From TrEMBL:
It comes from the Bacteria. Belongs to the YjdM family. It comes from Anaeromonas frigoriresistens. This is Protein YjdM. Pfam families: YjdM, Zn_Ribbon_YjdM. Signal peptide: none annotated. InterPro entries: YjdM (IPR004624), YjdM_C (IPR013988), YjdM_N (IPR013987).
């Protein structure tokens, strides 16, 4: 049929082109294909809580106390984590934390040092 993307606002499949704009007839949202392409490139970049881009080998600091599943203790705010590794998934940081061992963290709970 057509290979236009679904509406980013309501996920409607009935989008149509009007010049350079893409329009959703269900929610009246308008956007451009250029914006859609930039969004897809940004999805691959993992950012910390301040919006800084994270890379493999970076050092980060935990910004809030994090409960550890299956443990009575928590990772305290300000804990420094060295040599992180970025992975796909909900918890997108693989690391080792002293006193806890191997952990997976979400990038929204850390800031780059």
């Amino acid at each position: 049929m057509h290979d236009l993307p679904n509406c980013p606002k309501c996920n409607s499949e009935y989008t149509y082109e009007d010049g350079l704009l893409l329009i959703c007839p269900e929610c009246a949202h308008e956007w451009t294909l250029e914006l859609e392409n930039e969004k897809n490139e940004d999805d691959k970049v993992i950012r910390d809580s301040n919006g800084n881009e994270l890379n493999d080998g970076d050092s980060v600091t935990v910004i809030k106390d994090l409960k550890v599943k299956g443990s009575s203790s928590a990772i305290k705010m300000g804990t420094k984590v060295k040599n992180i590794r970025l992975v796909d998934g909900d918890h997108n940081i693989d690391c080792k934390i002293d006193g806890f061992g191997a952990m997976k963290l979400k990038s929204e709970f850390v800031k780059k040092i």
